[in-house]
């Protein structure tokens, strides 16, 4: 399997009640990535994906009913985990590296606790650990994320560090790369859809509800190595919620990207991809 993120055609996993849109490219151990809130196949930076594809068979996909996938849309965490599991089974993978960005990072963690035998490593980018956060995100994030269309200035606020010219330039370059796919693009998620899904959420203050602490207990046990990549100023999922866990989780690796926000893999795509490859290669 080869190809590139910008040219690989979209395929569909026919799963009876729905079709999951996905793209698969690269060589190596399967790495399945779960996307962020409002994200689709074309929300990932292709340079980051292409760098990953040098070491992994990369799989990205749209959740049920979102982007190019069919079915009834939902952001129910268990349903998103089912999407990932059903796609992995459809593709015939016995074991994968599971990863995710933001909301997708929650999906990756819940997949880890639900299907521990299916994974070797967990990759978490710009996301939050289980439970109510000790350090809250900034209101600016949700105010900006709710705009009908997120142009470059919104993306700088949401995923980068507006006060850093280095980060602002990285945002411009990343935005150009994301826009470079000429055809077969995944449809953006309509405002009416994501607002409806948000209104259905039972707990809008916690990205990863864990009322009885069971998710935290499973993830902290050290059964699988976990890598967290975070910007030093993530206004959605502050790194301060991960710092106390470095001495509590038995196999947690934390990488901080300076002058970066909620999308560190788009600001430093090569470094983040190489860090992930090294992590997988050297941890067991």
From TrEMBL:
Q: Which GO terms describe its biological process?
A: acylglycerol catabolic process
The Gene Ontology CC terms held by the record are: membrane
- What's in the keyword line of the UniProt record? Hydrolase
Q: Which Pfam families match?
A: Abhydrolase_1
List, alphabetically, the SUPFAM superfamilies matched.
Answer: alpha/beta-Hydrolases
Q: Which domain of life is it from?
A: Bacteria
> InterPro entries of this UniProt entry?
AB_hydrolase_1 (IPR000073), AB_hydrolase_fold (IPR029058), AB_hydrolase_sf (IPR050266)
As one GO molecular function, the record gives: monoacylglycerol lipase activity
Q: Does the keyword Lipoprotein apply?
A: no
AB hydrolase-1 domain: residues covered: 39-269
PANTHER family assigned? MONOACYLGLYCEROL LIPASE, MONOACYLGLYCEROL LIPASE ABHD6
Q: Output this protein's name.
A: Alpha/beta hydrolase
**What lineage is on file?**
Bacteria, Pseudomonadati, Pseudomonadota, Alphaproteobacteria, Hyphomicrobiales
